[in-house]
Amino acid sequence: MEVRIKILFTSICHTDLSAWQGENEAQRAYPRILGHEASGIVESVGQGVTEMEAGDHVVPIFNGECGDCVYCKCEKTNMCERSGVNPFKTVMVSDGKSRFSSKEGNPIFHFLNTSTFSEYTVLESACVVKIDPQAPLKKMTLLSCGVSTGVGAAWNSANVKPGSTVAIFGLGAVGLAVAEGSRARGASRIIGVDINPNKFIKGRAMGITDTINPSEIKKPVHESIREMTGGGVDYSFECAGNLDVLREAFSSTHEGWGLCVILGIHQTPRLLPLHPMELFNGRMIIGSVFGGFKGKSQLPHFAQECMNGVVNLDEFITHELPFEKINEAFQLLVDGKSLRCLLHL
């Protein structure tokens, strides 16, 4: 039930960056091959794999879908008991061993079910999605993580309605994907919040209608948003992985029905900055993993929608480099100069 893929394109997400920098204890298993956003072609399949064959165009997914467990059979979740996202997982399920090794024969560990910073990688078939061979693989790389996570959060987790108001905290690739998804759903007002004003230009091209730079205002962000929207937004999305930002995102939603969706990865042991009684005012807060998409069963349709122009993928690719310049790509992300730097092998 494993698939070997020849990686053609891969890109760097902030999760790769935090793992490289050792910010999360769960990600400190080394040596390890990072990378989880990619596209490629099936090189070979293992015993039991029937839905794919050599030559198929595929994208890897960090949050798999085995199709058989109680989670996969439940329409209310996109979790998977066997192949769901697990930052502590470093080996394959079938035998508890790695498919990578050094020249000396020592194991090199897997990362987020995928490990795409490699010319070839091996994944459980539950973490491989077959897509239309007519779909441009370069663009399909974005569906492995960032775009699916953001657009899916707007479509699946929040179910943004036409004419609604949205606030997005953090305008990286995921935040801008939320904007793109909200625009596609007909949101009337999309407020982008970020301390980097350079992101506002790209944001406006992807659906952002209003911008707020917290460093340039004298009042809390949520107060400004409430004033702008007559009480608060219908939906807010926290994409920064910062609890203080999360507090502002939650408080910016409207009493009675406002929904705050958590997308940022929170590295610290700090807990939610909320008092339970605040939920009695009708505001809600939820988390979203991979945008609520069931990868294998729903991603091919999403890929088709992207091909049809429902979601504009071109705006997300800000740089392209050969894979051997991966260090330059990491630096672009560190400096806040790129959304997605596409690396071609």
Summarize the structure.
This is alcohol dehydrogenase. Helix 9 (326-334) links the parallel strand 14 and strand 15 (340-344). The chain has 9 helices and 15 strands.
Number of strands: 15
Poorly predicted regions are: none
Question: What's the shape?
Answer: globular
Q: Order of SSEs, N→C?
A: EHEEEEEEHHEHEHEHEHEEHEHE
The Rg value, from CA coordinates, equals: 20 Å
Q: Please identify which CATH superfamily of the largest domain we are dealing with.
A: Medium-chain alcohol dehydrogenases, catalytic domain
Distance between the termini: 26 Å
Q: Can you give the helix content as a percent range?
A: 10-25%
> Please, how many domains?
2
EC number: 1.1.1.1
Catalytic activity: a secondary alcohol + NAD(+) = a ketone + NADH + H(+); a primary alcohol + NAD(+) = an aldehyde + NADH + H(+)
GO molecular function: alcohol dehydrogenase (NAD+) activity; S-(hydroxymethyl)glutathione dehydrogenase [NAD(P)+] activity; zinc ion binding
Keywords: Metal-binding, NAD, Oxidoreductase, Zinc
Please describe the structure with a list of short key phrases separated by commas or semicolons.
Quinone Oxidoreductase, Chain A, domain 1, Rossmann fold, alpha/beta, ADH-like_C, zinc ion binding, GroES-like_sf, globular, single chain, 345 residues
